[in-house]
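Anyone have tokens for Glycosyltransferase? Sequence:
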Amino acid sequence: MTVCPTDDRHVAVLAFPYGTHATPLLNLVRRVAAEAPQVTFSTKKSNASVFAGLNKEQLFNIKPYDVDDGLPDNYVPSGNPKDAVAFFVKAMPANYRTALDEAVAKTGRHITCLVSDAFFLVFVLTWLKKCMQIRENKEVDFLTGFSGVKASDLPEGLVEEPQDPFSIMLEKLGEALPRATAVAINSFATVHLPIAHELESKLHKLLNVGQFILTTPQALSSPDEDGCLPWLNKQEEGSVVYLSFGSSIMPPPHELAAIAEALEEGKYPFIWAFRGNPEKQLPQGFLERTKTQGKVLLPVCVCMTHGGWNSVLDCIVGGVPMISRPFFGDQMLNTATMERVWEIGVELENGVFTKEGILRALELIMSSEKGKMTRQKIVELKDFAMAAGGPEGGSTKNFGTFSEIVGGSSYEQLNPQQHGYRGIRNKIAGAFAAANSRFTRRNNPKHQGLEAFCRHKQLQG
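Reply: yep, here.
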């Protein structure tokens, strides 16, 4: 993307084109773009969905460019989201350079600053080499403030062989981030102060700008075609189960069946943000039998989730405990953190959905004394998040700093005839990896908290 408070400013923003990386980064870009004249946002194949429904006024000065995702012609998805990541890693950095050249040629402006996506921030800066040396079941003892976390909870790329392409990329990322002018992350400092202090000691400037749902300009609301809100308002407070597994995850068929059986037997009111065809993928007759039981969000008592960082933060802002079934990436560590460190949710037994395991987890959260303590603790975290996103909060102030850095004029101007964007890239991209990948894709809804989920495709039971 590009941001320019003066005619010669051109800031390129590079996103990873898988999962929910592109959409949340666009939320950040839109807010920066509102304060600066020119922005170009680059991803491949996610552009259609990322920019869908946004008109020119909502895009401000944002111009999207495609970046080659490295997928072969006639590629057939395997169902494993990690496969697409592997192809993309192999295509870097040539794919980005091509898109940058195109942006320079079409705008006539040389790029003066790079904002690049990143992930696994804490690990690549502090513990990457240690992660690669541990065994799967060994308890990790070098994560500050993380008791009871095992190697199996860490993202896969951190415990691969040193010559694995993904591991090599993470190592290079860890070398580049300390040279950044600033690193912005979708979190708030008080959620885990030891980690914040450790990152501050390794970075030029750390900016906690989250929970981003609290600081993103509100988009036009989608119509409530399924009538979720009226249905929701009729439910008792703290009685509804919400289920969502992100944009890249679908539990296997036997686990979908277990979820459906547990919901039906437990008779809990529910809302399920379902990707796919529920009539074909859920047990026969389930929709008809539960049609008065299911719909979304103020009375939500628990969220059944995959443990993605965006979803975890959304639940914190909504004050809603979690039942997590992680699949890949940082989801295992997020799940371990919310259960064992923050104590704001539980992981499913053995990490898979079974009818008995789901019912026990629901009973624990919704009816037990431990569940009561869990709800109290997540409300405490919610208060911290709301304070951070308030007018005088730390996240709000950090976003102001972020905007000034991106749209300011404090950078040394290089000779564009001599350097083009490549000279600036060497000067600043190594000095500006400004956006962590964990900017949440939710926009601030009319009613704060988990009601943002009403904008997803709902399963009406």
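Residues 274 and 286 are 14 Å apart (CA to CA).
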